[in-house]
């Protein structure tokens, strides 16, 4: 199976809404249907996957702006960005290899089609109907909306919706 045109779908909601848990359930369902899936996760935290004292960390400390750690089964690129540099999603997408679908978690203000993830316990303001890019809402309590609503535990229904709505190639229902 070849990789088709890359489609991008956002998963937006407030911290603690269940975005990561939903993606964790969706990814195996989508890949089982033959799709090549990538994830871009936005965070406001200063993260570092490197280990202090290891060679790659030492290279960065010496001034390298990019360090690619390569092994037989995976690779990891660590790139230093300028202070307060919050790149748009498009800049991150340009770094990815070919895939059928990119799931973008946490880019709630990007102008991309998205699924809103809601946790009623948070009492956070809804993105829909103010964001016309919201295709559906996934949450813990049923809502009456003018667009599809799915329970957060029904990953099969969400996956089927995404495949149909995004017209994903190679995906078998």
UniProtKB/TrEMBL annotation:
It comes from the Bacteria. CDD domains: MobB (cd03116). The gene is mobB. This is Molybdopterin-guanine dinucleotide biosynthesis protein B. SUPFAM superfamilies: P-loop containing nucleoside triphosphate hydrolases. Residues 8-140 form the Molybdopterin-guanine dinucleotide biosynthesis protein B (MobB) domain. The lineage of its organism: Bacteria, Pseudomonadati, Pseudomonadota, Betaproteobacteria, Neisseriales. Pfam families: MobB. It comes from Chromobacterium aquaticum.
């Amino acid at each position: 199976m070849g990789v088709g045109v890359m489609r991008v779908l956002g998963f937006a909601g407030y911290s603690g809404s269940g975005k990561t848990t939903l993606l964790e359930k969706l990814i195996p369902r989508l890949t089982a249907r033959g799709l090549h899936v990538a994830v871009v996760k936005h965070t406001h935290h200063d993260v570092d996957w490197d280990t202090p004292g290891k060679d790659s960390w030492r290279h960065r400390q010496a001034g390298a702006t990019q360090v690619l750690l390569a092994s037989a089964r995976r690779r990891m690129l660590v790139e230093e960005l300028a202070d307060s540099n919050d790149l748009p999603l498009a800049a991150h997408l340009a770094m990815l290899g070919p895939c059928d679908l990119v799931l973008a978690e946490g880019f709630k203000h990007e102008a991309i089609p998205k699924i809103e993830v809601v946790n009623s316990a948070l009492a956070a303001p809804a993105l829909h109907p103010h964001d016309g890019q919201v295709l559906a809402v996934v949450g813990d309590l049923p809502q009456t909306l003018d667009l599809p609503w799915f329970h957060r535990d029904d990953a099969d229904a969400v996956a089927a919706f995404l495949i149909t709505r995004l017209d994903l190639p190679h995906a078998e229902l």
